[in-house]
Queue: 4 jobs
Job 1
Amino acid sequence: MVDTGMVPGPHPSRANRTGDMLNQLKNSGVNPEDVDLVLITHMHIDHVGWNVDYSGSEPKPTFPNARYLAPQLDWDHFTKPEFAKDAPWVAENILPLEEMGLLELIGDGYAVSDEIKAISTPGHTPGHMVFDITSQGKKAMVVGDLLHSRVQVERPEWTAGVDTDKEASQKNRKMILDRAESEDIVIAAGHFHPDDHIGKVITMEGKRFWQVIS
C-alpha cells in the first residue's frame, strides 16, 4: 500500500476529520491483515491517517502484519519542535510506529524490492518521495503530491500553496513528467479525480497532456 489517506475518527483530535479507507479496501477484498508493506510518500495529514488504530485502549498498527517505510528527510523536518507543534498528526500517526519498532526511514534510491524503488522528489515537503515500479516489462509510478491537478501536467511550474520549496517542487515535477513521457510510464496521481487518477503523459501539437487510462 502507498499512503494511508486522511485521518479517521474516533480519536478526540480527529472529531472533525473523515476517512473511509478500510471500507474501501474491504469492498476491494482486502483486509488489514493482508497488507504487509506500507510506503509513505510524505508525512502530511492526508497521507498517514490510517497508520495507527486508536479504537482500543492502546494504539496499535492498523495493518498488523506490515512494516512501514517513510522518508528520513520528512522525519527530520516534522519532528523538530518548531514544526511538530503544527503537525499533531505526526505524533499520532508516525511516532507510535517508531515506538513499536515498525517504522523504517529511507532515502533516495532505496530499493523496496527488486521491482520498487524510492525516488527523492522534495518540494512539497522536504522528504517527499515518488515510488518507481518496474514489473514484467512495464513501468509505473505513484507520485504522491508531486501532482495535485491535471493542469500541472501542462503547467509544471504551477505549485501548490502548501509546497515548502516551490522551486524544488517545479524542478522535480518536470523531471518526473519528462521521464514519464519518454519511458511510457503509467502514473498514479492520488489527488486527481477518482475517474482520471491513472494515466500517462503525452505531447500533442506541442503541448503536454494527461491521457487517462480507464
Note: Residues 38 and 139 are 20 Å apart (CA to CA).
Job 2
Amino acid sequence: MRPSPSARLARPFGALAIAAIVVLVLVASVATATAASRPAKARIANATEKPAAQASKRPSALTRCLRRARKARSAKTRLAKRRACRLAAKRARAARRKTPTTTTTPPPTTTTPNSFGGDVFGVSTGGTIQNEDATTLGRDLDSMAGTHTHWVRVDINWAQIQNGGPSSYNWGAIDRVVQGATARGLKILGTIDYTPGWARPSGTSASFGPDPTQYATFAATAAQHYAALGVHAYEVWNEPNLTASWTPKPDTAAYTRMLKAAYPAIKGADPTATVLTGGTAPAPSDGTQIAPVDFLNGIYANGGAGSFDAVAHHPYCWPANPGDAQGWSAWYQMYGTSPSLRSTMIANGDSAKKIWATEFGAPTNGPASSNPVSEATQASMLTKAYQLYRSYDWAGPLFFYQGRDAGTTTDTRENFFGLTRYDFSAKPAYTAYQQATTS
C-alpha cells in the first residue's frame, strides 16, 4: 500500500515536527481554497448585479423620444416633437392604469405544437391593395408569395362593392386580389367591413356601425360569391373596439347584434366557412374605446357565444417584445393578464376555440411619439412572434401587417409596417419571415 503523506513525513521527523507540519498544511490549504473561491464568487456577484445595473441605466421611452426630438432641425419642430413625446408618455401612463393587471410572472407557454402547423403564417394586405394597377398588384402578390406565407388577409369592402346602391354589386376590384392570391397558392381571410353611404346616416363615415340585417344580407351574398373563388374564412368587421373603426363609438351590444345576424347568414351561404369576430386592437377601456378583453367579455354578456368559430385579435406590442409580461401589451393580454382573452373564453365554455392574430407588426419609421423600431428590431420581433405563436395550442394563424410599406412620408407610422419598403426593396423582416416558414 502506498504510504500516506503524514506517514512519509514521520520517518525523518518527530511527533512534534509532524504535528506542526500538518497544521501548516491545513492552514495553507484553507487559504488556497479561500483565494480560489473569490474570483468565482465575484463572477457570480457581477453576473447578478450587472443586468440590474444595466436595467437601471436604460433610458425611459420618454427620454429616448426627447433625445430624438432634439435632432430636429428647427426650433419649432423640436418643440412640437417634445410636446408629442410628453403627450405619448401621458397616454401610456393612462393606458397602464386602465389595462388588466399582470400576473407576477408570465405563465409558461404550452409545449403542445400549434395545430395549424404551416398554416400559422399569414400576411395582412391593408385596405387599399385592390385599387392598385395590375402591374403593382402583381408585384405585391409576388412579394407576399415569396415569403412562403400560407394566408393573405383581404378587405371585402362593402362600401366599395355596393357603392352604387343596395341592388348594385361591383366585385371587380376585390376579385382581382382574391384571384391573384389564390392563383399563387395563397388562402384568403376576407374581412367584411365598411358601411356604404346608402346604408348609413347622411354625414357619417364608412366606419359607421351598420344595421345588422343589412350587414348580414351583404355578408351572405359575399360568402356565396367568394366560396366559388375558394374563400372559406371571414372576419366580421375590423377593430370594432376603436372609435376610428366603429363610429360614433364602440358598442359591444350593437356589435354583437351584428355578429349574431352575420354568423348564420355566412354559414347558410357557405357551411364550410370559418367565421371570426372582428380583430380587436390595443386600447384601454376609457369611456371612448374598449379594451380587447372587455370587448370580448361584452360579446359573451350580450349572447354572442354561439356566433363565431374563433376570436380575432391584433396583438401589437411594440416597443415591448412578444411574450413580455406587460399588462398593456395586447400580446400578453391573450393569455397572461387576469383576466385575459383565453381565460374569458374558457370561463364561457369556449376553450376549444382558437385565437387568430389577424394583424401583428411594428412600424420602422414615423413620428417619434409612435415609438418606431429599427428594421433589425422589427425582424427580431417577427422571429420571436412566430416562435411563440407556433407553441400555443390555442392559436390559429398569425398575420403580419403588412406586405409593403404604404408610403414614404414620415408624418404617420401607418406608412412603415411593411415587410418591404415602398419601393419593394426587402427589409430584414422579409428574410426573417422566409426563415420562419422554413424553420
Note: The chain has 13 helices and ten strands.
Job 3
Amino acid sequence: MTPHRTLTPAVAIVLSGLFIAACDNSISNVNGGPGDAITADLGATARDEIEASLSALTLSSSLDPIGTAQIAPAGGGSASPGCVTPSTPLESDGDGIPDDATYIFTAPPCRFTGWRGGTLDIVGTLRIQDPDPIHAGFGYDATITGLRTRFTGADGKNIFDVTRNGTRTLSGSVTSLTLATDLQLIRTFVGKPDAAVDQQWNITYTPATSLQINAAVPSGTLDISGTADWARGNEHFVLTVTTPTALHYNADCSGTVQRIDGGEMQLAGKFGDMDGFVRVRWSECGKEPSYSFEPTS
C-alpha cells in the first residue's frame, strides 16, 4: 500500500519541477498512484474551482471576485464601480439580476489585485438571465462562453489560465443556495500540457445567518457532490467529488481570496491500477489547502 502523502504548496511546486525534469516533460499516470506532481495539480484545480464557485454565489461577486480589488486605470484616477456593464440593463423585480443581459469582459479594465500577491485578468462572455423576472429572488441562469481568468504571480513569471465554457444555475432562498455547475475547463500549467476538465457538480451553501437579496453572502458551509473528468496527455481520471467535512467559508477573513478556513474535499477514482482519492484539506484563513493522495485498495 502506498503511504499517505501530504504536500504544502511550496513543496508541491518543487516536486512538480523535479517531476518534469525527471520525465523529460512528459506527464503520465503511474501505477503506484497519481504521484505528487499530479496530486498537486488536481488539488490546485479543485481549489481554484471552489474559489470561483464562491464568487458565483452572487452576481456582484461574479463580476468582482471575492477578495480582489479592481486595478485603477493607467494614467491615474480611480476604478469605476464594476469593470463591465450589461448589454441590457432592464431589471424588473429589484433583485439585482437583469432580466436577460450579456457581460463582455476585457482586461483592462477587468484586472484585479489581491490574488495571492499577484493579479487576475478576466476576458470572455457571461450571459445572465433571471429565471423569474417578476418576483425577486436569489436565482440566475448563467451561460459562460470563453470566459478566461489569467492569474499572474507577484514575480510576473507564474502565469496560468483557466478558460470556462458551460452553464451555472443558482437557486435558493434565505436559508440556503444551490449552485448547479456544468462546465468544461481548459487549465494551463507552467511547463506542462493543458488539462481538459469536465466539471459537473452541485454546491449547497448554508449560511450562518439569513441571506438578504442584493447583499454579500455571510459566513457559511459548502457541501459539494458531483463528478470531474480530467484529461491531460495520457492521464485520464474519472473522479467522484465529495466533501466528507463541509467547507467553511469565513466572510470575516479579509484581504485574501483564501477564505475557506476548514473542511475537506475528496476526488475519488482509479489512478493507474490503484483506487484512491486526492484529498484537499483547508485549515485556516489566508492559508493554502494541503493536497495528498490516499489509496483505498
Note: Confidence is low (pLDDT under 50) at residues 1-29.
Job 4
Amino acid sequence: MSWLSSMNEQKKRKVISMAVLLLLTSCTKPDANAPAAPAALPVKVQIAKLVPVNDTTDYVATLKSRDSAVIMPQVEGQITKIYVHSGDRVSEGSRLLEIDPTKQQATVKSQQDSRAAQQANLSWAQQQYDRISGLASAGVVSKQDLDQAKANLDAAKAQLSSLDAQVREQQVQLHYYEVVAPGTGIVGDIPVRVGDRVTTSTMLTTVDKPGSLELYVYVPIERSSQLKVNMPVEILNGQGDAIGDSRIFFVSPQVDSTTQTVLVKAQIANGKDTLRQSQFVRARVIWGTQNSPVVPILSVSRIGGQYFVFVAEPDKNGAFVARQKPLKIGQIAGNDYVVLDGLKPGDRVVVSGTQFLVDGAPVVPQETSG
C-alpha cells in the first residue's frame, strides 16, 4: 500500500500491531446471534418393572341354561286361550295355553257312551250266566248252553276292559290340549297368538328356571392345544370389567367343521339374574400368567402404526437425554400397556411432557411411583 510505504519503520510496526490486535479481538468476540444451548426439561419418569400379567384372549360366547324348557304342543289344533305373558313367573303345572279341545271332548264323550252301553251288555251277560248256571245245576239246560253263557260273559268283560282303556287314552289325550308348565321358571317369548293353528313342531314358548348358566365359548383350532379343563374364564361387561368368573369343565374332543373351532364350557353363577338365556357375552380365557414390563397408556405415542415411548438415558457426561424407543405392545392391563418387546426392567420411562420432547433432548428425570 502507498500510504504504508510512506511511513517510517516505527510507525509501520505500530500499525501492524494494532491490526493484529483488532483481528484477534474480532475472532474471540461472541456472536450475539448464535443460538443458546437448549435447557434441560424436567420430566417425570417411572421405572419399568416386571409385573405378573395374565395371558388372555377375549371371545364372543353364548349363555345357555340347562334348566330351560322349550314348550311344544303334543297335539295339533287351534289356540283358543293364552293364560300367561312373557316374563311371568310360573310354578309347575301352571296353565300356559289352551288348544281347542272341542273335537277331543266329543271323542271322549263318544268313548264314554260306548263304555256305558258295554257296561249294560256286561250286566245282561252276567244275568244270563247266573240264570243258566242255576238251570244247569238242576239239569234243565245242557252244559253246552252253560259254556255259551260263560263265553258271552267273558267276551262282555273283555270288551268293557278294552273300552275302559280307550276312554283313559282319550282322556289323557284331552289333557294335552291344555299346555302347562313343566316346572318353576320364567315364561319366555310367546311367538303364537290366539287363533293360530299349531302342530307338534310349533314352539309355543320357553320356561327358564333362574339360576346358573353354562357359558359356550368357541375357541379357534390354533389355540386348541392349550385348552385344559379347570382353566379360568371371566365374563366381561361392555366396559371390559369382569362381572363373573368360572373354570372350564368341558373341552370338546371334536372340531366344528364349519367354523374350525373347539367348544369349551364353563358354569356361571347367576344369583342376581343379571344374565339371560341365549345372551351373547364377552368371555376372557386366561391361558396363564407371565412377568412382563408395563408402561402407562398416556406415555405411549403411535406414529404410522408403530408404538413409541421416551426413555431417559444418561449420556457420556452423566446428564440425561430423552431417547425414543419403538415398542411391541400387547394387551391392556388396567391403565397400562403390556410391553412384549422394546423395554427392559430398570428403564426410566418418561410419563410427562412427552409432547415437548424430541429424540436426544436433554431432560431432568424426576422419579415417580408407578
Note: The first strand starts at residue 41 and ends at 47.
